[in-house]
Automatic annotation (TrEMBL):
Domain DAGKc: 2-137
InterPro entries: ATP-NAD_kinase_N, Diacylglycerol/lipid_kinase, Diacylglycerol_kinase_cat_dom, Lipid_Phosphate_FormReg, NAD/diacylglycerol_kinase_sf, YegS/DAGK_C
Stated family: Belongs to the diacylglycerol/lipid kinase family.
Lineage of origin: Bacteria, Bacillati, Bacillota, Bacilli, Lactobacillales
SUPFAM superfamilies named among the record's database cross-references: NAD kinase/diacylglycerol kinase-like
Record's GO cellular component terms: plasma membrane
UniProt keyword list: ATP-binding, Kinase, Lipid biosynthesis, Lipid metabolism, Magnesium, Metal-binding, Nucleotide-binding, Phospholipid biosynthesis, Phospholipid metabolism, Transferase
GO molecular function, one term: ATP binding
Cofactor: Mg(2+)
Keyword Disulfide bond (UniProt): no
Protein name: Lipid kinase
Amino acid sequence: MVMHKRARIIYNPTSGREALRGDLVDILAVYEQAGYETSAYATTPEPNSAKNEATRAAKEGFDLIVAAGGDGTLSEVINGIAGLKQRPTLAVIPAGTTNDYARALRVPREDPIAAAKLILKTNNRFKIDVGKANDNYFMNIAAGGTLTELTYEVPSQMKSLFGYAAYFAKGAELLPQIKPVEMSIKYDGQEFRGKASTIFLALTNSVGGFEQIVPDASLDDGNFSLIIVKDSSLVGMLQLMTKALKGTHVDDPRIIYAKAKDVMVTPLDDQDRLMINLDGEYGGDAPMHFVNLKQHLEVIANLDEIPNDALTADMKKYEDDFVRGVDELADQTAH
Ligand SMILES: Nc1ncnc2c1ncn2[C@@H]1O[C@H](COP(=O)(O)OP(=O)(O)OP(=O)(O)O)[C@@H](O)[C@H]1O
């Protein structure tokens, strides 16, 4: 008897513009063509429906799990399998509005069937790092601060309309609420002790449109890129944001930029609440222990292709306007 490999597609019927529904038959056919006996599960509005199904399918011995939806669905699927001994391979079909992770894996983001077809390509399997934060897992970025919604809590509609520009608008609006917190950050035998306003632990360089926030990110080196932001003034933070667009923030004295596998973040004053955001969702408060699980998951990706993520003309213009606005603001405050 021939044993077939099995694939489980976990898809969110509501994500993005409900684009997946019409493509599902074709997507199933692609995985069948690749030799997988394939079935599909539609997620439900209940919390963790994608996560629970991912755990169930992995324990049932499925070889491949396809997470089809937005970053939220993908994050749940990763949380459903990352803690298991036997982990299926993960494929991603992006259908959300930001799809940061698919961008990092260079999975086509406009065409779900093209994304599925990566399974047919040779040289498409990569073992990549996964982040652990206390008992949760993340694949892209952990952010900590008094206000971790900084780059994330952008309403979906606004994201679809303005894409990447929406992050700036929202970021600028929220910045005045950021307050520095006295904290200890132990990282691979070193320690930062002092006031910091925000920290980031990144696994990829694909963070809400800031392609250069981690200019030298590697998906499989076992390290987080740790960014500790010491400044918290409005102008200072905005200036750092403009520098982050170009990747020049890493040399700024207001920032500590390091590579580390093990990071312990502890607020030093019990009164301070240091919230942690994992891949765009609230992930609990510090103290938090972060561990990089090196090459923990096998993913279907397109990493041998040359990146094709040039900023569109519109984004570029917005970026230029933003940089000019910040320069003017800095001038006014200086006088
Ligand atoms: N059948 C369903 N009906 C309503 N909501 C659902 C359903 N299935 C999943 N959800 C909800 O969808 C959310 C996850 O959305 P997901 O990240 O996949 O897409 P998105 O929000 O469109 O994408 P992005 O995060 O990129 O904006 C979760 O809050 C989940 O509870």
